[in-house]
Automatic annotation (TrEMBL):
This is DUF202 domain-containing protein. It is a multi-pass membrane protein. Pfam families: DUF202. The chain crosses the membrane at residues 54-74, 86-105, 117-140. Its main location: membrane. It comes from Corynebacterium pseudogenitalium ATCC 33035. InterPro entries: DUF202, IM_YidH-like. Residues 45-111 form the DUF202 domain. One of its GO terms (cellular component) is plasma membrane. Keywords: Cell membrane, Membrane, Transmembrane, Transmembrane helix. It is found in: Cell membrane.
Length: 145
């Protein structure tokens, strides 16, 4: 078995039989089928960039988890109710964010495969508001504490 070296054929694997290659379409086995079963494979650089964006959203979610846990774990000089509310809020957003990242990854990958414009991510302005609310609550809590 050998992997084709042509970048356009990166999704195909061939097996050699008597100087002929049997080409197997790997798009049927890739997950999720709703993405990979349509259109044509885009340039791998774009697919990998989309994956890096997905991973950046996952890192953001992990940072929100760390921040939410840190607020409760360390002796942060804030009113207890405010500290708990901000911590829970950060954890709830951190739970939702990976799902939002997954949906955006699927929409972007499918748009590239169908040669359509990339969709806008509504998560960006929402995350900006979340960060502003958390920062504002912490500043207000600092003055109240």
């Amino acid at each position: 078995m050998r992997i084709r070296e042509d970048a356009a054929q990166c999704a195909f694997i061939g097996t050699q039989t008597e100087n002929e290659y049997k080409v197997v379409d790997m798009s049927d086995s890739r997950f999720p089928r709703s993405v990979f079963a349509v259109g044509t494979d885009p340039d791998p650089r774009f697919t990998l960039a989309n994956e890096r964006t997905f991973l950046a959203w996952i890192r953001t979610s992990l940072a929100l988890i760390a921040g939410g846990v840190a607020l409760e774990a360390f002796d942060v000089p804030l009113p207890a109710g405010l500290r708990s509310a901000v911590s829970v809020f950060m954890l709830v957003v951190a739970i939702i964010l990976p799902l939002v990242a997954w949906v955006h990854w699927k929409q972007s990958e499918r748009a590239m495969r169908e040669e359509r414009p990339l969709p806008f991510s509504f998560a960006i302005p929402v995350l900006v508001v979340v960060i502003m609310v958390v920062a504002g609550a912490l500043v207000v809590g600092e003055f109240l504490g």
